[in-house]
Amino acid sequence: MTTTTMNGKPVYSVPAKSVLNLSSGFRHKLLCDGPTFTAGTSCGYSCTFCYVPAIMRKSPHLATLPADLKHEDAVIRRAGAVEALRKQLTFANGRPRYLDPSDRRVVYASPLVDVAANPELCAETIAACRVILELTHWQIRLLSKSTLLRTIAEALVEHRDRMIYGVSTGTLDDDLARAFEQNMPLVSKRLATLHWLQDHGFRTFGMLCPSLPQRDYSRFAAEAHAAIRADCCEHVWAEPMNVRGESLTRTAGALRAGGFTAEADDLEHVSQDRAAWERYARATFEAHAPRYRPGQLRFLQYVTTKTAPWWAAHTARGAVVLGNGGAA
After folding, report:
1. Which of 4, 33, 132, 217 is the most buried (most CB within 10 A)?
2. What is the pTM of this model?
């Protein structure tokens, strides 16, 4: 049982046997050079489109939850995460394993949970970053939906050359985002945080992921480019929504419940028709691609054997081909 809550969710803990993954699949998304770290298994936030419940459904960490509690309904933390991270980065005698000055790999956080969903988790992220900054020469990329990203940046200001910050802004409208990103900072507040970081000389990246089907793709792409101040971002990731687990059903339902009937209809339409889904993905990409300087856009697309050739032909424009179809 637990008596602790975070963001309205009960909190459960598992031993932190591993925090650092040196060969993460996020390398294929170009978010890192292999390494990722995470101090949690289940997030403090609740996004209907979240893919984590689907990929973690067989995780032994879920055994700590009561049978009637879903992954997304709880916060699962890794007890002793910062200490475990230090052990992974050092030899038994305490000597750093990765202290080569030429090793400037980018490590990404977090593949599973938001790094700053509340002040306590924010403080934990700062502590973890300090360990990495102390024991390596790596660069750290942090993604969050929280305005507390500014708190992290201020705490680590002396390392601004090694920290890269981004906020998730797949939807620009506060009311629309509120329908399926419950109990988290408004998109406008996240953008204000991103602008503060840019105004104060911090390294930033854009994260236009995931975005809904649009009635006017060109307009959305133009507004998104302006909203994130793309010229101030080192790179910009973009992605359509992808079918994983119950994410699409939950998102469409949340949109409809929030009064966004047209958006729910559009999402359900593309989810039920593979050809319509491909048109939606390509329209999103084609609207974004011309707006970014060469090498800046990183458009994530899961492909099939049939669609892979089209996307592979557009890698120079920013398409990042993912999935077994791309490998084939």
Report:
1. 132
2. 0.95
